[in-house]
Specification:
The protein is of the alpha/beta class. The chain has helices at residues 21-35, 59-70, 91-101, 117-121, 140-154, 172-183, 238-245, 249-254, 285-310; strands at 2-4, 7-9, 48-53, 74-76, 105-110, 128-134, 161-165, 187-191, 205-207, 219-222, 260-262. It has 2 domains: 3-138 and 290-310, Rossmann fold (3-Layer(aba) Sandwich), CATH 3.40.50; 140-284, Aspartate/ornithine carbamoyltransferase (Rossmann fold), CATH 3.40.50.1370. Bound molecules: phosphoric acid mono(formamide)ester. Phosphoric acid mono(formamide)ester binds next to helix 2. InterPro entries: Asp/Orn_carbamoyltranf_P-bd (IPR006132), Asp/Orn_carbamoylTrfase (IPR006130), Asp/Orn_carbamoylTrfase_sf (IPR036901), Asp_carbamoyltransf (IPR002082), Asp_carbamoyltransf_Asp/Orn-bd (IPR006131).
């Protein structure tokens, strides 16, 4: 891994832990350059990529596809329902096949935490792996787009008071973000139900009731209640969750004028955030989705730089 002429070069991009602060800042600045159309696009017209999504996704899947197409890459279609996954083919064998076909980049979302380890350790698989989310593990592209959105607003991370609120235990967004934001100098707070808070968060920030900090926050990062990981019941009605832990209109009115609200989406409207606030002036939820394309272009470029260095 390295930064050359402000550009990152990596063989795989599977977690935020593998990136230095310098590399993180270079990636988000490169994302901003792509957004501002300041980049002369390299010729990636001979590159094949594929997006292997074993869990549902709209934003991550489709924005990687837009990023790949904007970079001029060929995107190989893959659908778990119509592929040999239905015949029992494993993830390893699917990626081995793609690699043998000449696919150079596999973006993968999979329910198993750390699914990528056996893929990047393989001496036969030559395709680079980009993690589009591993169970409740990591979500590096979401983290980088979140960082880009905060950086666009404040131009730094040092001393920012950032609250990550909600379904912490199940959230790969919370885990990716808390680690890197602390490293970058932000003050992290956590809020949400006790049941979804655990010791693993203690090293990164303070756990408080949302009402005890709302007026002091620079960034309120709301998390989706991940119903699919709650074995059928999250244990709260939507109304109870919203009233006790969510961003109500009353809480919104207490935020600083300069504060911003983030949410990785999809949003459970009127649970994590009032329906009326999803596109409110302090909300950056749409900006996050837009930034996702540009930061993913930067990630793909970093992979291509890494592959070029290895040749
Ligand atoms: N934020 C996010 O990962 O959304 P998708 O599940 O739609 O990709």
């Amino acid at each position: 891994m390295s930064v050359i002429n402000n550009q990152v070069a990596v063989s795989n991009l599977v977690s935020m832990e593998m990136l230095s602060n310098e590399e993180v800042l270079a990636l988000i600045k490169r994302g901003s350059e792509f957004k501002a159309s300041k980049v002369e696009l390299p010729d990636y017209s001979s590159i094949f990529t594929t997006n292997l999504f074993f869990e549902n996704s709209t934003r991550t899947h489709k924005s990687f596809e837009v990023a790949e197409r904007r970079l001029g890459m060929h995107v190989i279609d893959f659908n778990t329902d119509t592929s040999s996954v239905k015949k029992g083919e494993t993830l390893y064998d699917t990626v081995l096949t793609m690699s043998a076909l000449g696919v150079e980049v596999c973006v993968i979302r999979h329910p198993e935490v750390d699914y990528y380890k056996e893929l990047i350790d393989s001496s036969t698989i030559t395709a680079s792996i980009v993690n589009g989310g591993d169970g409740s593990g990591q979500h590096p592209s979401q983290c980088l787009l979140d960082l880009m959105t905060i950086y666009e607003e404040y131009g730094h991370f040092d001393g920012l008071k950032i609250c990550i609120a909600g379904d912490l235990t199940h959230s790969r967004v919370a885990k990716s973000n808390m680690q890197i934001l602390k490293r970058l100098g932000a003050e992290i707070y956590f809020a949400g139900p006790d049941e979804w808070y655990s010791e693993e968060f203690e090293a990164y920030g303070q756990y408080k009731a949302i009402d005890d900090m709302i007026e002091d926050l620079d960034v309120l990062m709301l998390l989706r209640v991940q119903h699919e990981r709650h074995n059928g019941s999250a244990g709260f009605s939507k109304e109870d969750y919203h009233r006790t832990f969510g961003l109500t209109e009353e809480r919104y009115s207490k935020l600083k004028d300069s504060a911003i609200i983030m949410h990785p989406a999809p949003v459970n409207r009127d649970a994590e955030i009032a329906d009326s606030l999803v596109e409110a002036p302090k909300a950056r939820i749409v900006a996050q989705m837009e930034n996702g394309v540009y930061v993913r272009m930067a990630m793909l470029e970093a992979i291509m730089n890494g592959r070029h260095l290895e040749k």
